[in-house]
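Repro:
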Amino acid sequence: MPDLKTRLGTWDVLVLVVTLVFLAFAVSQVENFGTSVNFTFLVLDLLPIMLIALPMTLIIITGEIDLSVASTLGLTSALMGYLWNQGMSIELIIPACLVVGGLLGALNGVFVTVLGLPSLAVTIGTLALFRGLAFVVLGDTAVANFPFSYTSWVTGTIAGTSIPNVLIIMLVLALVCGVVLHATPLGRALIAIGANDQAARFAGINAGRAKFSLYVISGVTAGLAGVLWTLRYSTARADNAAGLELAVVAAVLLGGVSIFGGKGTLPGVIAGVVLLGSLQNVLRLEDVSNESLNIVTGVLLIISVLLPNTAAAVSTAWHRRRLRSGAEGGAHVA
């Protein structure tokens, strides 16, 4: 008789099935959900979550976390507005924001990998620090009037289709992340670090360098998300994307990545992002308040931690029971 895990399937596959079923339901039952206009809005809403969730997946797989990502997005958005007000060209502003994002990620990496501080405490601290710096840079003001050629590209679609331009960025980065995690020695090393950090070190894996690199990548990606967020709304604000880190973590954990590290797949995370984003989109179409959207995100975050661990505990108990029954049966035969 197959064990419980085999019969029910893995968590990420289950999330993928639930996502497909929900999308089919939304298209058939929710007015305007299946329209090309709403598809564009849905992809634009998914964009910052997906971009930040990709490196977040790798970080959590190693047993760490980065809660400062939304504040990094907000700080790079504020910097973008400040530099634009100073007359700098957009062609120089964008790489500058990416560099600053990388430096912010490097700061987290130094605290975690060099000083050995817990990533949860560090990134809660930098969450507040980076958001505060965003208000120092730009204050409570909003900066608009970014170049139309850039804002129209971010919100536009591929010529002759309803496919948003930014979907290309999402797919390319997801492909790169998927190849790294599932088809390279580095991906196997990251999983090994999360499963047993000390054993990975004994095996010759430089866990500190790998984690530091991931924090830098996370910062750069959050900076890119800040640039795209600003261009989408054509508004730079210090409070942009406040609270987005919860949606990112919820999507990653919902996709089957273990909060304890050492386990996770990118297809599961993509399914988690799409499920969370499409659910929020449906609720907006039904005129549900933002407060209720936060409640949904919180509930999904709890479910994403509770259910997989409960299922794993049940599966382990079932397996031990089978082993014990087999041992007792062998003893009776003897």
